[in-house]
Amino acid sequence: MASPFQPDQFIAGHVRDIPRSGIREFFDIVQSMPDVISLGVGEPDFVTPWHIREAAIYALERGRTSYTSNLGLLKLREAISGYVEKKFGISYDSRKQILVTVGVSEALDIALRAVVNPGDEVLYHEPCYVSYSPSITMTHGVAVPVSCSADNGFALTAEAIEKAGTARAKALILNFPTNPTGGTMTRTELLKIADVVLRRNLLVITDEIYAELTFEGEHVSIASLPGMKERTVFLHGFSKAYAMTGFRIGYACGPAELIEAMMRIHQYSMLCASIISQEAALEAIQNGEADTIEMREQYRLRRNFIVDAFNAMGLTCPLPRGSFYAFPCVKSTGLGSKEFAVKLLEQEKVACVPGSAFGPGGEGYLRCCFATALDQIQVATERLARFVERLRR
Ligand SMILES: Cc1ncc(COP(=O)(O)O)c(C=O)c1O
Q: What three-state secondary structure class fits 6?
C-alpha cells in the first residue's frame, strides 16, 4: 500500500529551517485584538499622495494593462536614472544598468540569486531588516552577521567587516538609514568600509530604501564613492519615501552584467513589475518630491516627540538619524525584549516589535515605528510610561 502523503516531507530542507518573520508572528496576535495602538509594522500611515494614485487610475483608464519590457518601462528607467544621478550622484545607463522590480524585496532576492553559489558567504550588519538572513539562506548561501554593538550606537565599523567571515565571503549587504536602529553613515565612515570592500574583493548590495527619510546630515551612498559603482548593486524603491507600499515597486541599478543576470531571473519568475505601479512610480519620481519632504517633516516631529518620551520614562533612546524607527533600550526594566513586548500588548494594548526579531544584537531593545499619527503616539507613550512605572514599582 502506498504510504500516506505527508506534505511536510516535501518541503526543501533549507526552506523548512527558515523561521517565520518575528514581526508577522507578533502582528497576527495584534490583528485579533481590538483597540491596539500599533507602532509595529514599518509602513507609512499616510495614504499614497493623490496625484500618484491618480496616475495609476489614469493608466487604467487609458487601458494600460499589458506587460512591459522585462526591465520596466523605458520612460520610468530614464526617470530613475535622472533621479539617482541628481540625488545620489551616481549615473546609470537606463538601457542596461537599471531594472524595475516588485519592490526592494524582489530586487534583493534576485541580486542574491544572481551572485551566490552554494556555500558562498554573504555578510550583513545586524540587527537588521528581517529578510536579509532568510534571503541568503534561500540562495544556499551562508548568512554571516556582522554584529553591531549597542555600546557604540550600533555603528558598523570597517574593522568588524574586516574580521567577518572567511575567504568565501562574496558580498556585503548594507542598509543605511538602517531598519531597525535608525542609524546612518557619514562619508568618512563609508570610505573606510569601501576600503575593506576593495581589499577583500567583495560585491556590495546596498539597500537605500530609507534614503529620503534622512533627518540629519547628508545621505551618502557607498555606490558614489571612488571604485564602488563598479562593484555595487544599488537597491531603492517607492514604498517608504512616497508611501507606496501596496504598489510593490522598486528598482536595482548596477553593472550591466549583473543587471542582465538579475533580469534573467526576474524574466522567468516575475516577468515584469505591474504596469499600473510603474506608471504611478513615474509620477512619484517626477512630481513627488514635495510630498516626500512634507511626510519627512511630519516624521521628524513624531520622532522628536517619541524619543523624548522614551528618555523621560528612563528607556534610553538615541535620536534615529534616518528611517521611521525608534529603538529604545528596555534592559533597565529587567524584561527581555519579547517578554516586554508581549506584556505591553496584553496590559496596555500597545504593539511594538521585540528587538530580537532583528537578530540577537537587538535583544533588550524594542522597535517602535513612528509612522503613526502624533495623537496616537501620544496615547501610546502615556500607556508605555504607565507600564514601565508599574514594572519599576
Ligand atoms: C530595509 C528594508 N528593505 C526593504 C524593505 C522592503 O521594501 P519593499 O516594500 O520595496 O519591498 C523594507 C520594508 O520594511 C525595509 O525595511
A: coil
Cβ distance 111 to 137 under 8 Å? no
Pocket of ligand 1 (CB under 6 A): 42, 103-105, 129, 175, 179, 207, 209, 237, 239, 245, 250
Mean pLDDT of 177-182: 96
Q: What is the pLDDT of residues 313-356, one digit of tens each?
A: 999 999 999 999 999 999 999 999 999 999 999 999 999 999 99
Cell numbers at 378, concatenated: 501620544
Q: Counting Cβ atoms within 10 Å, is residue 249 exposed (0-12), middle (13-18) or buried (19+)?
A: buried
More confident residue, 255 or 42: 255
Per-residue pLDDT tens digits for 138-156: 999 999 999 998 877 788 9
Q: CA-CA distance, 280 to 338, in Å (whole number)?
A: 39
Cα–Cα distance measured from residue 171 to residue 197, given in angstroms and rounded to the nearest whole number: 9
> Helix (H, G, I), strand (E, B), or coil: what is residue 36?
coil
Predicted model pTM:
0.96
The residue whose grid cell reads 556582522 is 146
Task: Tell me the helix, strand and coil percentages in the chain, rounded to 5.
Answer: 50, 15, 40
Task: Answer whether residue 22 shows pLDDT above 80.
Answer: no
Looking from the CA of 254 toward its CB, the CA atoms found within 13 Å total: 29
What is the reported pLDDT for 367? Answer: 96
Burial level of 72, CB count in 10 A (0-12/13-18/19+)?
buried
Which of 179, 213, 214 has the most ligand 1 atoms within 8 A of CB, as the residue to mutate? 179
Query: How far from 314 is each of 26, 90, 229, 384, CA to CA, in Å?
Result: 25, 43, 43, 11
Find out whether 160 and 147 touch, Cβ atoms under 8 Å.
yes
Atom of ligand 1 nearest to the CA of 178: 1
Is pLDDT of 129 > 80?
yes
CA of 104 to the centre of ligand 1 (A): 6
Q: Identify whether the C-beta of residue 196 lies closer than 8 Å to the C-beta of residue 158.
A: yes
What per-residue confidence (pLDDT) applies to 151? 78
**200-226 per-residue burial string, b: 16 or more CB within 10 A, e: under 16:** bebbbbbbbbbbbbbbeeebbbbbbbe
Closest CA to 53 of 284, 213, 209, 371: 284
